[in-house]
Amino acid sequence: MWPRRWAGCCTDGPSRVSAPVTDRIAIGLAIVIGGLLAADFLFADGAGAFFLARRFMDLLEYLAFWR
To answer: Contact at 8 Å (CB) between 3 and 9?
Structure first.
């Protein structure tokens, strides 16, 4: 059903196992996200974070409608 490159079909046998997220990768992502949020609050008074929070709330409301 799915193309093999998506590796999402469970009837084709075992799919490729991707590399796990290590502590080093998780800490790096947290630092990058924290830095971007800090820059947003420093330079734009948190407008970007507020915009993303509003859009996320709209998404949750949309998904709740389809529940």
So the answer is: no
